[in-house]
Amino acid sequence: MGTQWGVNRSVAQVHALLYLSDRPLTADDIVETLTLARSNVSTALKELQGYGIVRRVHVEADRRDHFTAEIDLWDMLMRIVAERKRREIDPTIALLGDLAFRLANDPTAPAHVRERVTHMHEFLSTLGGWYEQIRVLPKSTLVTLMKLGSKVARFIPGAKQDG
Hints:
Blueprint: H1 9-20, E1 25-26, H2 27-34, H3 38-51, E2 54-59, E3 62-69, H4 73-104, H5 111-134, H6 139-148
Antiparallel strand pairs: 1-3, 2-3
Helix pairs in contact: 1-3, 2-3, 4-5
């Protein structure tokens, strides 16, 4: 499933194993179970820890590092979305903002290019702003919003709802 979302296969396998495990696992356990190279497992663990969905834990009477995955799906989703926004969306917004500024000051730039880049920048900035407002809502509110789906439109004056 992870590879369908652009995640490296080894990273997806390590995450799946840790998510489904009923106990913390060592890197050696992961290497043995998945028959992956130690370097791949190490890289995957660093990537997953970077997303905040895997953490290192201490197991009493064992000096080795053990790892466990976040099992709360909402927390996992929010951490993944926050990190992908930071890595992918935020730099794109900054790049488009710079490009829109340069195009606005370039009389040789075609008007339609200026307009499209400006609209794309505005769109992604609005999306980023919406996310920043949504991410601070309590989990119960997010669940309610998700369950409402398109019915939320009834609270917007003048909005039309589907059947």
